[in-house]
Structures are given as structure tokens and as C-alpha cells.
Amino acid sequence: MVQSTCVKCGNTRFEVRENLLARQGIKVQFVQCIRCGTPVSVLDHYVPSAALKANAELLEEMDDYFRQDDQFVTSITSMLAR
């Protein structure tokens, strides 16, 4: 399989960075070279997969919070039962 390379520096590693288009105020994601920052592609910020990932992370945080809360309630209940 052919590996993608940066047209400016020849690097083969890339990253996705969120940015705001100046005059339009639209969020976009740039696929850019990790070494020199040259953009190679632009993605719509509001893609469903990004929203799903953010929601999944939020649900994990909420689950952790409620699990801790449940442990707290269980501890208090057992202390009161003594």
C-alpha cells in the first residue's frame, strides 16, 4: 500500500486539528502534517462520528460519576445500618 507523504517536508505522519474559518465562523478540522503543519485535507467539524465519540465520552464520565455516587450511598447505608 502506498503511504501518504507531506508535499512540503516529506513526513508520513498526520494529525487532525480543529480550527475556525476566520470570516465565516465555521468550525472545520484540518488533516495536517504533524511535523510542519501543512494542511492536506479539510473535514467538516460536525460529522456524525465526531459527535458520537463526544457523546460516548460524556456518557462514560456520567457513568463514572453515578458509579461513585452509588458507592457513596451504599457506604452511608451500611454505616447507618450498624
Descriptive account of the structure:
With 82 residues, this protein is α+β, with helices and mostly antiparallel strands. The protein folds into 2 domains: 1-45, no CATH class; 47-82. 41% of the residues lie in helices and 24% in strands. It has one helix spanning 48-81; strands at residues 14-20, 27-33, 39-44. A hairpin with a 5-residue loop joins strand 2 and strand 3. The longest helix has 34 residues, at 48-81. It is elongated and about 70 Å long. The mean pLDDT is 85.
> On the 0-100 scale, what is the average pLDDT?
85
The SSE order reads EEEH
- Distance, first to last CA: 67 Å
Largest sheet: 3 strands, antiparallel
Helix content: 40-55%
Strand content: 15-25%
Number of strands: 3
How would you describe this structure in keywords?
82 residues, alpha+beta, three-stranded antiparallel β-sheet, 41% helix
Annotate the secondary structure layout.
Layout: E1 14-20, E2 27-33, E3 39-44, H1 48-81
Antiparallel strand pairs: 1-2, 2-3
